[in-house]
Structures are given as structure tokens and as C-alpha cells.
Amino acid sequence: MSQTFLEFERPIGELMSKIDDLRLLSNSSEINISQDIARLEQESVNLTERIFSKLTPWQKTLLSRHPDRPFTSDYLNTVFTNFKELHGDRVFGDDESIIAGLAMLDNRDVMVIGQEKGSGTKEKVRRNFGMPRPEGYRKSIRLMQMAEKFHLPIICLIDTPGAYPGKGAEERGQAEAIARSLKVMAAIHVPIISVVIGEGGSGGALALGMGNRVLMMQYATYSVISPEGCASILWKDASKAELASEALRLTAQEILELKVIDEIIPEPTGGAHRDPAAASAILKHHLLAHLNDLERKSPPMLIKERFEKFMAMGVVLEEGASL
After folding, report:
1. How many CB atoms are closer than 10 A to CB 257?
2. Backbone φ and ψ of 133, nearest 5°
């Protein structure tokens, strides 16, 4: 399968291309070059580690949008089993930018709700490039309430540039749908784990982000606005997105320092897109660990901890004061 390499990944791509050429040569000749291949493979690993050890916020933003990065639909096939998709908001229609339904996480029944960008042009258009409309959030609300009724934990997978800003979406109450999603999540009696698996953009991401635990993949981003949008507002120039990404503090490491998330989920060397199977195994391990902890808590405690977690964000204390 062909791989896509971003500009800063190009040296890695060139080295991997040489390795592929040597493998072809090895298969078609009697010359033993296995040691040369092994040496280049180790060199590729070392080069990847060096490049990824000093990524800028803008490079991490590009990684969060990488076309080969696993989407919700990929994790549904690798992290979960027996997924049964449920459709519609029972008000307007079904929004395919949000995939939701019943699944199993090991031996547990769970409700999974995730934003889906889609692969390939046709699929991206069908999924609206991962930008949910109001009916998508209302579908999510309906299924969260169903999960509560049947005492099922809720897993939310966040990957969106933001809620769809089109005229129809605004006419059908985009802001109200996002606000109601937050209100419903705040009072749900079952555990909620939200994971930013790629791009966490604005209120469109936050609408699924009010979890008891909020996690981020290592090269995901989470921000109130995209770097391009921020640059357009501040400097009237979207080309200054790289500068804006520095100021937004949108990387997982910065978000953890701000205590907006609870944990960073490590990714394989080179990012989740280089080894989706390993990324899925790591994600599953962390989901199970947090679920084991949350399932020991009573419904009132789940609500109390969730409320206190989000109310503590952004609090500024005067010197000498305490919460």
C-alpha cells in the first residue's frame, strides 16, 4: 500500500523507498543483501525518532490531519467488535459525519460515537469532511440517552475540523444542538470517555468532549479554532497559520499542561498512520484501563467528578487564594 509523506517526513520516505528497492532486488537476484536492508531499516527508525522528537505545533497539526491517519471507522474494526450502527436523530435525518452505535470492547457492551472524515473523495463528500450538522449531534444525544437507559459506558472519538457552518445547519439550530449535547453529557449517569484521535476543532469537537476522562492521541490537536481561522482573524492572512499554531497551544503536550485533558495516548514511532494496528492496540489498552476505574464509581460520583473537572478549567486564583 502506498504511503503519503508530509514535507517534513520526506527524508523518511526517501529512505523507505530505497529499502523497498533493495527488497525487490533481493527477491529477484541471488545476492544476499539482507544485512544492508536491516541496516537501512534501523537507520529509518533512528531518522524517524530524530525528526519526531522536535516537531513544531504546525507539523503536529499537519499530522493530526494526515490522510493516512486512522479514522473512527478504522478503530471500529480494530479496537471494537460486533459494531451495530444506529441511524437518525428522529427529528430531521441521519448525519453520516457521525458514526454511532452499539459495540463490544473486549467483553463489555458500550455505545460508541465518533466523527468520521472519510477516505477518498466520494467518501469525504458523503461524510461532509467530518463536519457534523445539527442532526448529527442530535443523533449523538439520542444514543447517549439510550446508553444511559441500558447502563452502557459511552466512548466518544473526536476527529473534526469543526461543526458544519453552512446555512442549512444554522437554520436547523447548530449552536443549540451543540449546547444541548454538552448539557446532556454533563448529567449522564454512565461513564463517558472522550478521545481526540485526530483533529479536535472548536465547538464541533467539544460537543462530544465532556467526558469523565478526556484523552488525546500523541499527535492529535485540540483547539478553539483552526490555525488558519485564527490567522485570518488576527492577521487577515490565513498563510500565517503556522504562526497561529504556536500561539494556540493546541498540541497534546500543551493541552495536558493546561489540564484540559487527563492523559496523552502514545503513538507508534512515526505516528498512528505508520502502524495503525499498534495504534489500535495502544488505544484499546488505555480505554480499558480508564473504563475499569470509572465502572467502580457510582452514578452520582460520575456526575460530580465530571462537573468539577470542567468547572475547574480556566479558573484564575489571586495570590494566596485557594479553591
Report:
1. 11
2. -100, 175
Number of folded domains that form the chain: 2
Q: Which of 309, 307, 289 is nearest to 299 (CA)?
A: 307
Residues 24 and 124 in one domain: no
The pLDDT of residue 28 is 62
Query: Quick one: 121 and 258 in the same domain?
Result: yes
**What does the block give as the cell for 301?**
460520583
Whole-structure pTM value: 0.90
pLDDT of residue 312: 87
User: What is the phi/psi pair of residue 120, to 5°?
Assistant: 85, 155
For residue 258, count other CB atoms closer than 10 A to its CB.
Answer: 11
214: closest CA among 145, 294, 140?
294
Positions of the chain with pLDDT lower than 50, given as ranges: none
What local confidence, expressed as pLDDT, does residue 323 receive?
A: 58
Give the pLDDT score at 2: 63
Say if residue 49 is in the same domain as residue 66. Answer: no
Cα first-last separation, the chain = 54
